[in-house]
User: Fold this.
Amino acid sequence: MNFERLTTYLDELQERYGVPGSDLLVTKNQEEIYRHLTGYRDYEHKEATKENQLYRLFSATKVITMIAVMQQIEAGKIGLYDELQKFLPEYGTLYVVDEGKDYGWGNWPDLSVPCHLSHKPIRIIDLMTMTAGLNYNTEPPTGMSLSEDKASAGKKEAQMKGAPGETLTQKVMRAAAQMPLLFEPGTHWAYSLAHDVLAAVVEVVTGQRFSDYLEEHIFLPSGASDLTFHPNAEQEKRMAALYVSKNGTKEMLPCTDLSVLGLRMLSQFESGGGGLIGGVEGYSKVIAALANGGVTGKGERLLTEKSIRLFMTPYTSGELQLDFMKMQKFGYSYGLGVRVLTEKGSSRSPLGEFGWDGAAGAYVLIDPIHHLTIFYAQHTLAYDAVFTEVHPRIRDLVYEALED
Assistant:
């Protein structure tokens, strides 16, 4: 193995792409085979990147949520083809926007637009594969946007509290049923709040708060620490400074207000689609189980090998694949909450490798064929080149190093 070219590439990320700092960890057969840190956790104060620092994982959270859902499918509490209304009755009556208008990202419809009753129910598989017709509206009535100042934030959160025994996660996702669907379930693909809804479903069937479930059934068996929706004061101190691209360029500015980008959530809302905060080592321990037959480094089983094979299976084709291609995941289709490599092309990774990423640049690759994982973390928002150029290059340089 020769990782010299990968190391050089990572060291050049700040100059090429403005990435202030990064951390990359590669495991094989549950063992760390490469780790490299670059730059600064706080560029302005020149504080170097450290191994124990934490990042906002954003949508890399989705991979963890899919593990939880799959565990409940294995337990027989959820069926892949069960209707959502079985768990959240609010989704029993659904409205779909009339055809004829394309509602792009951020231009979300409400019930004031022409709608009709849905002809199809939302099923669990529709949520997992992002074909449910939901959107990513984080404004009311879902109640997740928190652009108010701190003085009003507590009041808003108090207003969102549910019935006794109902968490804020369930309350918010039940409210989301009021929004019209973009299309009939199963007919198109659209990135959405679907995995947040699934977090609420896990709470309903387990009787546990989502964070408690993840801790007991995923993080502890994996030996993973520092993965949380609610960082304590000590963990807050280890958070990497967050940056945002200036007008899509490599010039990075400090990001102090997530609400500007629609990414700030109510503090007690446990977003299965993007709410986790964590470190590279802890996250890698979880995904290493998926690359090793579902068994953690501690020898505890998270999932069966059958479930791992399901993660390696693409579910988008035809019209759905055309929709997914807008995400610019070249060579990939979408599966059960993850991208799945279906076209070899120039990729050095094998068909069937799967994973996802996060808004601040996190990158997840799980390769059950070679028992390999890649987890890369950085903390910059709104820079597309990270996803279309940096992530694929890291992937290929890792596999190139393994071949040397």
In short: The mean pLDDT is 92. The chain has 13 helices and 15 strands. The first helix runs from residue 4 to 11. The CA atoms of residues 102 and 344 lie 32 Å apart.
